[in-house]
Amino acid sequence: MIAGLYRDGNSVLHRAQAGAKILAMVALGTGVFLIPDWPVVSLVLVSVIVLYRISGFGWATMTAQIKPMFWLLAIFFAVQLWLNDWQAGLLVITRIAAIVMFASLVTLTTKTSDMLASLERAMRPLKPLGVNPEKVSLAISMVLRFIPVIATVASEIRDAQRARGLDRSILAMIVPLIIRTLKMADDVADAIEARSFD
Amino acid sequence: MKTKDIVYIALFAALTAVLGLFPPITLPITGVPVTAQSLGPMLAGAILGARRGGLSIVLFLVLVALGLPLLSGGRGGFGVMVGVTGGFIFGWAISAFVIGLLIEKFWNRLNVVNAAVSIAFGGIVVLYAIGNAWVAVAADISYWQATVGAAPFLIGDAIKVAIATAACLAVRRSYPLISKSA
């Protein structure tokens, strides 16, 4: 089973409802765009940092969330500095940092299973529109089940193509991988139907 | 929707996740990283068609949103999705759908040219339109400036269009799944 990005803890945020946290995330994301004012947005960012501390996360966890986009933010700041002024640059980077860090915090403090439960609740009103929650749940569990299987198939194919000297060719890798995935899908569908799922 | 369709949708979502495990190739000179994962939406649309292909990417994105590290480099969760490149991630679903629509339309007379055009339109034109708009809003720059900034990534995407086209045609010969359209 694939481990989620959730980190165990017992803070206020860990105990809060997944749906409430997602709504807060949407509100924060909308808010920082409605108030294009760098001191306000910086204050929001500081609050998010405080929330990380309250949730029991250290600086390492915090910086890990923003590190992948560090250079992008640096470029954005430079572009704003060039086009406008430093205040505009600060607004852009603090805004992105606040949204991304809060969104990451929601993921860090919410178990995948709790997230799934609120997704199932959110899907209920969509039932008259033809969304079948049982089928969505089946599909989700199937993806999780088949990622390791397809990964194993991929490494088998890589070994086979290496023996033929084709390990540099992406196409020689991808076409057999697709065909074997489709064949597997047929077998799985037969197995599910044999158990009268529908 | 038949059970078989659900299985195809789920297995292509899983395939997209597996493509994210392949190590990225760094292009010479520009240093732009090219990941195999964005082949996923192209393949899903071109092989499963609009509805199933689009839904398989939606399913993949749902799993990422639930907090699973399925994006290349082991990333996932809401943080990446609302980040600067979020438009490109959400755009994958629409991209797969558009590719599927076009491939279905050309299905009975599919050749290298119209398959490549279909995949390039959905996988580059549509995807970049969404992704660049998102970047423009996030970085407070014009749409044109965002487009210029995204240009170095076109090389990798052109390579992926070529791979997806060849794969789509090869799979169509041995395992055709889109049959209905006129």
UniProtKB/TrEMBL annotation, chain A:
Primary location group: membrane
Entry keyword Transmembrane: yes
Entry's transmembrane regions: 22-52, 64-83, 89-108
GO cellular component: plasma membrane
Keywords associated with the record: Membrane, Transmembrane, Transmembrane helix
Topology versus the membrane: Multi-pass membrane protein
Localisation: Membrane
CDD domains in the cross-refs: EcfT
Entry keyword annotation includes Transmembrane helix: yes
Family listed: Belongs to the CbiQ family.
Protein name: Cobalt ABC transporter permease
Phylogenetic placement of the source organism: Bacteria, Pseudomonadati, Pseudomonadota, Alphaproteobacteria, Rhodospirillales
Automatic annotation (TrEMBL), chain B:
GO cellular component: plasma membrane
Pfam annotation, one family: BioY
Subcellular location, principal: membrane
UniProt topology in membrane: Multi-pass membrane protein
Residue ranges crossing the lipid bilayer per the database entry: 6-32, 53-72, 78-103, 110-130, 150-171
Keyword Protein biosynthesis listed: no
Protein location: Cell membrane
Coiled-coil regions, chain positions: none
Keywords attached to this entry: Cell membrane, Membrane, Transmembrane, Transmembrane helix, Transport
InterPro entries documented for this protein: BioY (IPR003784)
Gene Ontology MF term list: biotin transmembrane transporter activity
PANTHER family: BIOTIN TRANSPORTER BIOY, BIOTIN TRANSPORTER BIOY-RELATED
Family: Belongs to the BioY family.
Protein's name in the database: Biotin transporter
Organism per entry: Thalassospira profundimaris
